[in-house]
Amino acid sequence: MSDRAFDAVVIGAGAGGLCAAARLSHGGLRTLLVDDHDRLGGRASTEEIDGFKVNIGAIAIELGGVFEETCRLVGAPLDIRAPEPASGFYIDRKFIDVGRGGWSLLLGQLTKQASRILEKFADARSGNLPDGRQSTEDWLTSYTSNVTVHAIFRNLCAAIFACNASELPARAFLTYFTSKGAFKRFGFCPQGTVGVWNALGAAVQHNGEVWLSSRATAIHASNGTVEGISVVRNGESVRIDCPIVISNAGPAATVALAGEAAFPAEYVASVRATLRPAANIVINIASRSPLMTHPGIVTFGKTRRLCNMANLTATCPELAPPGWHLYVAYAVPVPALGPFDAAAETELALEDLREQFDDFAAARILSIRVMRDDWPAQRSCAGYDLPRETGIEGLWCVGDAVKEYGNGGTQACAETAKLVTDAIFARAPYAHARHKM
Ligand SMILES: Cc1cc2nc3c(=O)[nH]c(=O)nc-3n(C[C@H](O)[C@H](O)[C@H](O)COP(=O)(O)OP(=O)(O)OC[C@H]3O[C@@H](n4cnc5c(N)ncnc54)[C@H](O)[C@@H]3O)c2cc1C
To answer: Rounded to whole angstroms, how far apart are CA atoms 335 and 345?
Structure first.
């Protein structure tokens, strides 16, 4: 069965795929978005557990960047509520609100070496960065041995990049904190994060279709040019012929869908050699009594594995049934970029939670998810990204394995979608398309 009714196909309705499909559709290309799940959002979606809206991955949606710009461009309402204060640190069971003082206020309280570290941040801001081989931990060790400072840097790496400070290039850490959004402004979606994806999905449908529970089984290409995909929908295989295919399935799955022989050998080799999926452990917690009063996200000081925790119902009470508080805590295993014992790592995170909060014993654990392997926290850790071009004409990748250097999270995925769709619209014969509507 053949259907030539689409100008473009996007495989995967994660953050990158949805932003790409919404931009293509808005720009005048009739777009088909397919996803193998029955809901939008991929690793940033939301599930319902006993009346609680429980997020699978992303909770904090950054404001003021490419993602917000995408929503505005395509007319998707962005239902986000910002906690105030948004972030802080929870060290020795005390909340530290660094507010506008940021790094200097935090480090100034902890180490005499603060000014040396801050100087390096200033250097990074002016483009003077370490090379990509030195880890964040080694970089920090050359300025301070303070245990609390090391613990905070580890937990920041874990919270933002889902890896340990020993695994993240210092260049990526400094790039993120000096030239990216760095979660300075963010909010939670009161419908669960899936709410923002549903709004983008509706925008795609203005000039296209969204097929859920539909798995792409092949990408067709010949002589180095993409020709379309096959997708299983309602139990039937459908072939969609079209000259643009954007894959949000990750580079490794994209190679498997088209077959290695379709790609230049160097691309296949770099997919094998570069990707470093990063893991984390997500613990969703419901409690009748408040565990913490800070409304946003706190990053912990010295812990075993726990890195940060969000108080969701303080800002969005509709995420839980009346009378309940909803929190989500994150832990990052050691190692996060290699094999680990999930049960042992989870137990260490639970020990941390018991130690941090007296009322944790009375709380209810709604779910514990270990994000790893082909359903990871980041499909490739910052500093280990691949290009968005695949070496096949018309076939592109978006998502968190093809991020700009040092970026992370859904914002980074939205940026990959903007870069790919801008490149598509800049090329003939699509240069006119954005003006068609
Ligand atoms: C626990 C956790 C917490 C996080 N917290 C935050 C946060 O607070 N803020 C933030 O910005 N980011 C956060 N992130 C990161 C963010 O969630 C991810 O970077 C982002 O969601 C990844 O999106 P993606 O574009 O790579 O697509 P993915 O989420 O990987 O989606 C791809 C989709 O494609 C589908 N697919 C794959 N193959 C096929 C196929 N053959 N046919 C059809 N469909 C297919 C998949 O099933 C999936 O639905 C967090 C991640 C995790 C795991």
So the answer is: 10
Q: Phi/psi at 182 (nearest 5 deg)?
A: 50, 35
How are the residues of the chain apportioned to helix, strand and coil, as percentages rounded to the nearest 5? 35, 25, 40
Measured CA angle at 184 (ends 180, 185), to 5 deg = 110
Tens digits of per-residue pLDDT, 25-61?
A: 999 999 999 999 999 999 999 999 999 999 999 999 9
> What's the CA-to-centroid distance between 203 and ligand 1, angstroms?
19
Structure tokens at 154: 């580890």
- Phi and psi at residue 387, in whole multiples of 5°? -70, 160
Read off the pLDDT of residues 165-203 as tens digits, 9 standing for 90 and up.
999 999 999 999 888 766 778 999 999 999 999 999 999
Give 245's strand partners.
9, 395
Given a cut of 80, whether residue 435 has pLDDT beyond it is no
**Residue 202: which of 53, 390, 76, 372 has the closest Cα?**
76
Atom of ligand 1 nearest to the CA of 417: 25
**Residue pair 326/313 in contact by the 8 Å Cβ criterion:** yes
pTM reported for the whole predicted model? 0.96
Distance CA 298, CA 85 (A): 10
Residue among 155, 18, 146, 6 at smallest CA distance from 87 = 155
| 415 CA from centroid of ligand 1 (Å) | 14
Domains of the chain: 2-44+193-275+381-435 (3.50.50.60), 100-179 (1.10.405)
Q: Name, in order, each residue with C-beta under 8 angstroms of 193's C-beta and a sequence gap of 6 or more.
A: 41, 44, 45, 46, 55, 57, 58, 59, 61
Check if the beta carbon of residue 31 is closer than 8 Å to that of residue 24. yes
Which residue in 28, 22, 27 sits closest to 70, CA to CA? 22
Q: Which position has the token pair 């978005």?
A: 33
Q: Do the strands 236-241 and 225-233 form a parallel or antiparallel pair, or are they unpaired?
A: antiparallel
Residues linked to residue 330 through DSSP beta bridges, in sequence order:
282, 308
Amino acid at 393: E
If one residue of 248, 282, 372 were mutated to test the ligand 1 pocket, choosing by the most ligand atoms within 8 A of its CB, it would be 248
